[in-house]
Write a structure and sequence with these properties.
By secondary structure, the chain is of the alpha+beta class. The protein has 7 helices and 9 strands, in the order ββααααβββαβαββαβ. The relative contact order is 0.18. Bound molecules: acetyl coenzyme *A (ACO). The site of acetyl coenzyme *A (ACO) has 23 residues, from α2, β5, α5, β6 and α6.
Length: 209
């Protein structure tokens, strides 16, 4: 096992309810597929281009192979694939990827949240829990994220947990069918004073549970 895997994080309380994070499970197939098919137009503009139609790619029968590749990456210490739960219900995913150790000790972080619990602090709380985990048990020095300039809600989430903007990556990622510019944001241990969750609580964005 690698430091920080498997992980059960939280709870943190926000307007939507109690936010917790836990490892992806094989039995997440139906909840994952139901939300992703229902929320296609909420998710698709921001996600890496995939092969085939959205409905087919997000069919419950695709989850077992996705789940097993996420678990394999987690087992070799390269990824932390978590489900975001609100009041114990599957409500999205938060993934830490490309974990590199040695002199870099860095990773990226990404997330999506179901539309019906949107705008109630869920992504902000999940990201704060994920970052505290990365800088704590996982032992990273730097976490970065990339976001399309058009994705204002996600930029607000990143800003609210304390990410700094580092620059614009031109035609960086194949997203929603084309090479898209992305803003690069990052945080290092030196940017923190206390935990990210504590900072959210002090800012009145969350309450401890
Ligand atoms: N313009 C500017 N800000 C906005 C807008 C808008 N149109 N709409 C919402 N916001 C702000 C909200 O006011 C809030 O900020 P505030 O707390 O300062 O008021 C913030 O965006 C949303 O915060 P949360 O409620 O914590 O976020 P939520 O749980 O709704 O999740 C998310 C946000 C993850 C972007 C969700 O909408 C989603 O899953 N979108 C589709 C997938 C996606 O974009 N994922 C992120 C890709 S980038 C990455 O992973 C690094």
């Amino acid at each position: 096992q690698h430091p920080g895997w498997p992980a059960h994080l939280g709870p943190v309380r926000v307007a939507a309810g109690q936010v917790t994070l836990r490892p992806v499970r094989l039995r997440d197939a139906s909840a994952w597929a139901r939300i992703r098919v229902r929320d296609r137009y909420h998710l698709e503009p921001w996600e890496p281009t995939g092969r085939g139609e959205w409905e087919a790619r997000n069919h419950p029968s695709n989850w077992p192979s996705l789940w097993s590749s996420l678990k394999a990456e987690a087992r070799r210490g390269a990824m932390i694939p978590l489900v975001i739960e609100v009041n114990g219900t599957f409500s999205g995913q938060l993934t830490v990827g490309n974990i590199v150790r040695g002199a870099l000790r860095s990773a990226w972080i990404g997330y999506w949240v179901a539309k019906d619990v949107g705008g109630q602090g869920v992504a902000t709380a999940a990201l704060a829990l994920g970052l505290d985990h990365c800088f704590g048990p996982v032992g990273l020095h730097r976490v970065e994220a990339t976001v399309r300039p058009e994705n204002l809600p996600s930029q607000a989430v990143l800003r609210n947990v304390g990410f700094r903007e580092e620059g614009m990556l031109r035609r960086y990622l194949d997203v929603d069918g084309a090479w898209r510019d992305h803003l690069l944001v990052a945080m290092t241990v030196e940017d923190l004073s206390g935990t990210v969750v504590d900072r959210l609580i002090r800012a009145g964005r969350a309450t401890p549970s």
